[in-house]
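for the record, two folds in this file. i put them one after another cuz i was lazy. first one right below, seq on top, structure tokens after. the second one comes after a little note so u can tell where it starts
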Amino acid sequence: MEQKLDVKSVFICGGTGFLGYYSAKKFLKQGVKVGVMALPNEITLDQGWWPKEIDVKLGYLFNFRKMNNQLTDDERAALVTHEQKVEMFKGYDCLVYAVGPDDRVHSPAGVTAYDYFHEKLVTEVVDTFEAAKEAGVKKAIVLNSYFAYFDRIWPEKHYAENHPYIRVRVEQADALIKVGDGGVANGGMDVVVLELPYIFGSMPERTPLWKEVFLDRFASFPAVFFPKGGTNMIHVEGIAEAVVAAAYYGQHGDKLPVGNEDRKFKDMINTIMETVGCTKRYCGVPCWMATLGGIKVANDIKKMNCEPGLNYKRLMKDIQSIDLFNAEDCAKTREHLHFDEFGFNGGGNVDDGIRETAKACYPHRFDENGNLIDKWKGVNPIKNETATNNIFVNKK
């Protein structure tokens, strides 16, 4: 039987991050009390953009450098214990977990990808959810990946078997649902899993991860050579809507795909290029050719004694050269979570989100009104071009 939680307060782990920030603002609009956990010295919150109503706690739920035993004394002191988590979460109805390494990063030297992602996305998160349950939190929401969704509906592709990050995301969902002990109706805690696709948009004081892990890689090429697949995409506002609606209507054990439009990579890439004034455009490459590039990346990472979360030798065939489309099931999620009751529509326009992302990657190319400055028209970005290193490269 469907149950609606009367949400009066929510605590967001990762509340000053991209997804947590938008979710926090959306909860405030619903009149919900919001507390967040943020990394020490992560960003400056006193410049007018951060909502003053939000209670901010500082500390590390985990630290990426812990596995290599490289923590400073200050970092070690800032690690939050299980008992401290329990005290932090007391008095809150709902917990949102929006923390963890991205699938585009690789493990530290000497650590397997599976061990790295498992510690950050399962071991550490299970402890946090256990603490939330002990504190009396009624519902906990974890922001997972749509790779887990595709692993579930396409078992013949063996995604979890071939890609450590996907395996860990599948394990994360199952482990956290187990923590719920049958849900709040059975004396436990409701656990809801949201499976997220490509997300676009921007926030203050953040350079989108897209720049470092995607755009910078194509800076030295005459075109953006990329596979011919596609994916579901969403504006970050749509993620916030899903998080808020799930707090009220998500049911224990739900694994819900969240997304908006199914789009080809060609559309995404060309919109980015056009926005920042580039002349280069998308150039589709066949799967076999893209796979050669993936193998080179895999070998480069191996030379560093590291491992990627996604297997680059299979990435192009398994993921990038096909269409990861699921708009119909995402629409079912919006219905299941009663978006219409909140006046939600799935988030902002996807193209607007892509443009916002592009502008945030190269903010020095735009004036105070968001218009491209004339001198940047027709100029392709150089590698590592940033707001503080905005060397002007004249078009030829």
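(here's the note) second protein begins now
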Amino acid sequence: MAVVGRSGNETPLRVLIERSSELKGELVAFAQGARFDRWLTPLLLEAAGPERRLDEGEAIRIIDDFILRYRLPGGSTVVDRFVAGRRDLTEADRAMLLGWRDPVEGVFEIQRRDGDAVVLLNLVDDLEYRTYSNVGRAAFRGVSRGGFLLTCLVPVHSVDGVWLVSGAMSYYPRSSAAEIARTALHFAAGRPELVFRNPAKIEQGWRAMREDRAAFIEFCGSDELVLPPAEVEDRLNAYYRHRQEAAATGHPDRARGGRIPGPDLPAFELPRELADSETVGVIYDEVDGLNFYPDYGMLRDLFANPAPAGRKQQQDLLRVYLREDSITPLPLRRLVAAHPETADTVFRKLLRKPGFTWGEHGEELLRRRKPRYYEQEPRPGVSVIGERLSELAAGARRPEPARARRVPREPGQP
């Protein structure tokens, strides 16, 4: 197989893969240099825990993720800095390296061998990937059709549909299907952005979220709840049981959909920062999906009656809601919509701007404080799993513990 570049010259795929091996080795050495130690070392120490023990595969995964995706001060990645500092790189080298900033992380089922490559089905995004390793076919020695790989892939940037293994790779035999299905479901539920690499899943996700939101409103009586943490967990677990039972009734032969937990999934629990709140706001928005907000009841009280003195705690909380980029504009918009007569007063006191009005300045304030929210394209809050993962999940019956086998790593990896 050959690739036609912009110059019109053909480059054999073999040459590109060999060059990727050279570049990856240089990139890993660059990342492990002293200039990045202040960021990489804490990541490795945290993963090692108090006993300072770190599995080789986990160390490789952390380093690979640090190289490709970790945002350094200023927003650049290690790859960006490597490319910027290497004037000797060709245009093709730069294109390949910068393409690695968008890796595909997933749980892959081996469909078939194809020469030096294997064709993998990503159980998370339901797409096929024709995959090579820069150590050659030896990387796939011992893996067989129907088995599974846990790994990360990067594109050979000049070639559509051709991918390379990046970092650690673990192989599981087909007898581990039940364990693998749970792992893939965990990926899909916890990181929906991995699912939505597949454009078809985006519209399916919106449709599933609309259905799920309607069911949530019917079950809970509203798309917005304010309850103590324990009651939130009870209500959500009751809702998920209701949805699971409804799904089983409608599809007795298999479970489908996104947010419906399977029988082996753990009960819903709030993270500690929410569990320690006096109240938790639960908002299931038609665009932003299902979200949870700490001490939301306190903010609602502030907007309902901002006049009394002694509101410093509430105002400090509102500052957190404005400051934290991880909190979307949704709860602030909801509070303003529910209390239009007091919203201007609340923000004038908070910002110390007597002329502030939400109608004139509110959207500008949100865009300034929440830039990342506006930079990202909206995505569904419900992950939709594919047919193959549905089959594997439905077939899980008291699985044996999955045992991974480490396979040869890339040149340049630690």
